[in-house]
Amino acid sequence: MLLYLRQEGRGIGLDNKIRAYALQDAGLDTVSANEALGFAADERSYAMCRPMLRYLGVSNVRLMTNNPWKVAALRNFGVTVTRVPIASVRTSHNAKYLDAKRTKLGHLATSPHGLSGAF
Asked: How far is the C-alpha of 62 from the C-alpha of 97, rounded, in Å?
């Protein structure tokens, strides 16, 4: 099952996400770019998941994510969540982005070899 929530760019909208990309190209990390535009690090709300899951009769999910905020949001709605880690390959192109997600957003890192922690 896929629940789609229109929350482009961590909830700041597509236009602002493009502005955030420009700031990232200038040297800011993904979180600092959002904050420089006047937004929180992550503006998304998962509240709409509650009625969607309730309507579908879903009370247990296996959630593919490294984002602990998503897990906590669903658990706060009374959903039983089993987190399925997403393996990430660290490259020179995404290292700064992955580091910001881990250190500033608390994302749980998993290597493609199943090792948790830093990449």
From this structure: 25
| Residues with catalytic roles | 42, 44
Encode the chain (119 residues) as per-residue pLDDT tens digits.
Answer: 899 988 887 889 999 999 999 999 999 999 999 999 999 999 999 999 999 999 999 999 999 999 999 999 999 999 999 999 998 888 998 888 899 999 999 999 776 654 555 44
Domain boundaries, the chain: 8-44
Q: Whole-model pTM? A: 0.80
Q: How many CA atoms lie within 13 A of 48 on its CB side?
A: 7
How far is residue 34's CA from residue 42's CA, in Å, rounded to a whole number?
8
